[in-house]
Amino acid sequence: MEGKKKxxxxxxxxxxxxxxISEDGYVYPESVINEIKKGSLEKILExxxxxxxxxxxxxxxxxxxAALSTGDYNALSATDIDVLALAIELNGIIITDDYAIQNxxxxxxxxxxxxxxxxxxxxxxxxxxxxGCHKIYDEYIKTCPICGHDVKRYSKK
Length: 157
Ligand SMILES: [Zn+2]
Known about the structure:
Blueprint: E1 7-9, H1 11-16, E2 26-29, H2 30-38, H3 42-47, E3 52-53, H4 57-70, H5 78-90, E4 93-95, H6 99-108, E5 112-113, E6 125-130, E7 136-137, E8 151-156
Helix pairs in contact: 2-5, 4-5, 4-6, 5-6
This protein binds zinc ion.
Keywords: Endonuclease, Hydrolase, Metal-binding, Nuclease, Toxin-antitoxin system
GO cellular component, one term: preribosome, small subunit precursor
Organism: Ferroplasma acidiphilum
């Protein structure tokens, strides 16, 4: 197994139906599997003998920090953060159709591949703009502290 590239599988890739889940080299974050078990796809897991893994705390912190930097943090679930953290920890490749995960992966220099659809071509840096006074914020806040209007995400090209 040493030296072999690991592929970190996220929920969207699991559900795409394009993966041979018993393939060697795939890593399943424990939280992804738990998420799928909650759904109707438990059958997939019964037939495959797969091993799950959880990322180390320091890698979760790194993934969070990166997601905050790109502005994707609020679009990511704890499971998504685990996927990113495992990819950082194992220097693996993420299989995902989730644009927010792909964007953070790109920012971190992590390779990724779409499970079914093609990935984004370039990284997007998200910014947040007040719908009232148009002030720009780097991080997501629900309400503008200046004028009280909603703050919405937009992409800075
Ligand atoms: Zn405002």
